[in-house]
Design a protein that fits this description.
4 helices, single chain, 66 residues, mainly alpha
């Protein structure tokens, strides 16, 4: 409870209220868990896709290569 009080003291009352609503609504909680799981899966896939994309390579001139 002390942590909740600290959040409210910092002006986070709306956030605390949202968290309480989420905890007391099983359907909404399941939906948020699903979104979090989808994000956890999608983000590494996005990074892998970005890593596979060709990147422009700087052209080496003969003077720089020596």
């Amino acid at each position: 409870m002390a942590r909740g009080v600290a959040v409210q003291a910092e002006g986070g009352r709306a956030l605390t209220d949202q968290l309480l609503e989420l905890v007391h609504d099983p359907a909404r909680l399941a939906h948020m868990r699903g979104r979090a799981e989808a994000f956890r899966i999608a983000r590494p896939a996005e990074r892998a896709w970005e890593a596979l994309q060709p990147r422009p390579q700087p052209e080496l001139s003969m003077s720089k290569a020596r």
